[in-house]
Amino acid sequence: MSQSVLLTAAVEDTEVVRSELKKLKITPLHYPLERYEAVEADKDTVETLELVGEFENIVYGSKRNARFFVEKVKAYDKLEEVREQLNLAADQHTADYLEGEGIPAVHPHSDGNSIDLMEFMLRIRRIGETLYPCGDKTAEDLPGLLKELDVPVEELVLFTLEGPKEEDLQAYRKDLSAHEPEIVIFHSRRSVNRTLAAFPSLNYGKVQVISGDQAVTDKLKREDIETDRQATGNWNSILEEMAESG
Q1: Same structural domain for residues 201 and 142?
Q2: Residues 188 and 72 both lie in one domain
Q3: Is this structure's pTM higher than 0.85?
């Protein structure tokens, strides 16, 4: 019999995860408590887009970042200039999206770890001025790693993170009441707050709890929730924990 798992991360962050869960014969109960919205381009954003051809690299930490960037450069008629740049993708999923938009993409054939992409850039000696599309509430470590090596990085903020709409939240609660999960994933510290607030009647003592990393585990402990399995800070490791728990 298939197990079910409560998953609350944004749609854009869970495409691969939801597909892999089905391969593990685990039914995702996906109620996104996070959603991304594009922000209006300010003067600095417009100036950066006008100068996009002057960067040595454009680095994409995720398909989400790539999608918001491509939408913006299309709006400002800069797609052809982007296609002529060196576009570096963190993983195959992101590279495939860029290729689908006609943007040649290079990636280090890794699991999407920031350190692997940084080492790849060093290996091919692309350590000049780098453009990094991102959001304003997303914790990404690659820009910081590059800055530590004195690589000039411009973080281009294109989207923001919001909570669910009230009507969506009510629909999630109604559906969850009919499909109680066997597993709950807390992928981040933020997800702990959002999940507890969204589903206060869920008995976390009767489900298997998977934590995204040690910081999430610590936060769950402060909420008197025991962690059954702990991942190492990325979705691949969460999937590995789920596969082993099965």
Answers
A1: no
A2: no
A3: yes
